[in-house]
């Protein structure tokens, strides 16, 4: 099993959209995929589950049914009944009553599972932040806190025998993301061709290296064998360019300007090379065109964009667009899988 965190310090680059579609495409290519939502905004969970399921999952009654009093119209929940979230899993640590509680993944479809997120996960931020420094001295309670995400994912992946774990995290460098990324074998970076994404890379690379060094040198030597802990590999897998919508006030030449700088910024900031050739795009996995016109249809149909049919409103030329979307994501999934397997081979040999 290998885990991939999808992360960029810059928000709004299509990270969750990429995670959602990549998970579905990897599953249909034969991988057993566990999608993990460690973003407190829980956008991946909201993309996969419908509104009724979210209400049940997050423990909130439907105002619509409550106001009209039609309990017989409530749907039969098959995916979220008695289901818990990652926030529930860490609640004993947060409240000081115990260690993590295992959470069983939600079955999305055969071969694809979701470890659902919850907006309440944001309450865990301060606990994780305090535990980081306490872990330097070998405090076992702090170590259990910092390794919580790793152990939750490990247990869930073993339960479903996952081949690949995709971890969706928020766009910041806070304590929740630090704990989430420590649990990742690799990091896949979605990028927009703009100044803000490149600035995000300049922050991302040094921060990941610093977290890795601190964990491996200052914390890991104190971790007892009884606590499962990550190695904090966080190996850069590469980046995926999410092409923007071209408008008159954003000409193609502006897009190309930032696109040309990506290889060097990624090579020096993320990979840590002192010098990186400007034209070395070996870590550029793919460029995905803008599919904004398909997103509303996919949202209404509760399915990936590349699965849209005429009955979903994908008519005429739109259906050709859907086919192009399918081909691009299939190619992307194959490349990501190949890179992940190469990392897994090296991990196995080590």
* Total of helices: 13
Oligomeric state of the chains in view:
single chain
Strand order of the largest sheet: 3-4-2-5-1-6-7-8
Largest sheet: 8 strands, mixed
Brief characterization of the structure:
The chain has helices at residues 15-28, 43-48, 51-57, 63-68, 86-95, 125-134, 140-146, 148-160, 175-182, 195-219, 252-270, 295-301, 317-349, and strands at residues 2-6, 33-37, 106-109, 112-115, 164-168, 186-191, 235-242, 284-288.
Describe what you observe in this structure.
With 350 residues, the protein is of the alpha/beta class. It has helices spanning 15-28, 43-48, 51-57, 63-68, 86-95, 125-134, 140-146, 148-160, 175-182, 195-219, 252-270, 295-301, 317-349, and strands at residues 2-6, 33-37, 106-109, 112-115, 164-168, 186-191, 235-242, 284-288. Strands 3-4-2-5-1-6-7-8 form an 8-stranded mixed beta sheet, sandwiched between helices. Helix 1 (15-28) packs across helix 13 (317-349), helix 6 (125-134) crosses helix 7 (140-146) and helix 10 runs parallel beside helix 11.
Notable features of this structure?
13 helices, 47% helix, 350 residues, alpha/beta, eight-stranded mixed beta sheet
Can you lay out the helices and strands and say which pair or pack?
Elements lengths: L1 E5 L8 H14 L4 E5 L5 H6 L2 H7 L5 H6 L17 H10 L10 E4 L2 E4 L9 H10 L5 H7 L1 H13 L3 E5 L6 H8 L3 E6 L3 H25 L15 E8 L9 H19 L13 E5 L6 H7 L15 H33 L1
Parallel strand pairs: 1-5, 1-6, 2-4, 2-5, 6-7, 7-8
Antiparallel strand pairs: 3-4
Helix pairs in contact: 1-13, 6-7, 10-11
